[in-house]
Every structure is written in structure tokens, then in C-alpha cells.
Amino acid sequence: MHFFFILHHIIILGMKTGLVLEGGAMRGMFTGGCLDVLMERGITFDGFIGVSAGACFGCNFKSLQIGRAISYNKKYAKNPRYCSFWSWLFTGDLYNAKFCYDLIPNRLERFDVETFQKNPIEFYLVVTDVETGKPVYYRCTEGTEHDTQYIRASASMPLASRVVKLDGRGYLDGGIADPIPLKAFEDMGYEKNVVILTQPEGYVKEPNSLQGLMKVLLRKYPALIEDMRIRHDVYNAETAYVKKQEKLGRVFAIRPEAPLQIGKTEHDPERMQAVYEEGRRTMEKNLDAMLAFLKS
What we know:
Layout lengths: L7 E2 L6 E6 L6 H13 L2 E2 L2 E5 L1 H11 L4 H8 L9 H7 L5 H12 L4 H6 L3 E8 L5 E6 L4 H10 L9 E3 L2 E5 L8 H6 L2 E7 L14 H7 L4 H26 L3 E4 L14 H27 L1
Parallel strand pairs: 1-3, 2-4, 2-9, 4-5, 9-10
Antiparallel strand pairs: 5-6, 5-8, 7-8
Helix pairs in contact: 1-2, 1-11, 3-11
């Protein structure tokens, strides 16, 4: 059943409404909880943009698959084919590319391609071009293998993943170049945005402690190394921009109230569930205020 035909679509006098999804590895379980509440309530937007985990889990918002993100993450949390040191050692990817981006969406926890294609909401993601160090904003329209590989690229963390080759270019994690792409989405015409963050208010990112190792292992990509050097400054500037737009009434931000107690490569299903439930509680708590913001 294609539920989007009955979704309540927020329309504001021609203003395009958007949803911006930060990444954060397994902190994305918080985002998954938020999105499931929105889908259960039939709330959608003109478009949304996801970075890294925000793209991996956010794609289910277009295919309208409530509970899919938490389901497969819990089911395969302890499976070494999903995420493990052995996968990294033998394939170069901590999150096994074949298992995560082929077997899961095509066989084990099937992705609803038909609904994805018919749902009119626009879905963008961010990848970082390893040669230029610039963010690339890619629109997913088919939900098939080509889109899936861009989702993979958006979530491919430096050192933990191989460079993903697509359309003649090499890409890694979108969060390197543009971790919270609110400004980019505004520039695309999305004037009124809800931003789902995975760090609490007041969080300040520190410089990357692995910068020295990255200089050695990523020496082929000097622009990418420079991105990693200033990544904390870019992130902190973008959280400040979210706060500025929030005060101006152009953004409604949803954040966890406290740091999320979950590892970047979490293997405990109960911890995943707890962070997912925190996302649900936070969205439900903010739902009325968010709807008032969108309709104002």
C-alpha cells in the first residue's frame, strides 16, 4: 500500500519545506526514531537531505518503511559480515559493502523500490569528492543500485572505508565537507526547514585525533586531508548557523537532550533500541511545536 497518497503534506503559501538529517554513525538510530514518528503521523515535506547515517537511515523516509532502520541494525548487530574488524581487514570496509548495500536491501530486509520511486518527496544526500575536497549534492530518484552506492559513499568514513568510485569520481563520507547541509538546502530553494541533529545543544566538536595517521594513509588526497584538518571548525560553524536560523524563525531544530550513549560501531541491540526510543520520545515531545512552526 502506498501510504504517501494519503500523507498530510505541509504546504505553506508556496514555501518549500525541507528536512535536514545530520549523520553521526550509530547516533543515527536517534534519527530513525524521529523519522518513524513522522511517518506514523503522516507528516512529510517537499524534500529532505541526509548526510552519512542520515542518508543511510533517511532513505526509508522516502520508501515509507517504518521501523526498517532499527530492525535490520538490531538483527545484524553482532553479525561479522555486517560490521567488524575482519570485514575491514579483508575488504577494506568496516561496514561490509556487499552485505550492507546488496544483501540487506535486495534480499534480507528488502528496500521498497516501488514506493520510493512513486513518492514525490525529493531526496538528496551529500558525498565528499576526494580529489577536490568539495561536497557534492546528489539526488536519489530510483532507489536502485546506483542510488544505493551513493548512499554507501555518503557513509564511507575515512580510514574505515575504501574510496567509492562512481561516475568517474571518488567519494567518501559527506560529513567531511558538509556535515549539516542546511545552507546548501536553503540555496536549493527549501526556505523553511526542520533539522534533526544527533548531538545535544552546546556540543562543540574537537580536532580529529587521527589527523597524523590520515596524512600518511590519505596522502594521495591533499584536499581531503585539509578537509579533515578543519572539519571541527566547519562543523561548529554549521551548528552555529542552525542556531542563528532557529532564532530567526526559519528553522526548527530537534536535538537529543543529552549525549547519546552509543558507540560509532555499536553491536548491542539493546543500546540501539534505547537510542531509537530516545529519538521517538524527542520527536513526540516536539511534534506540536514543529507543526506550528511549519504552518506559521
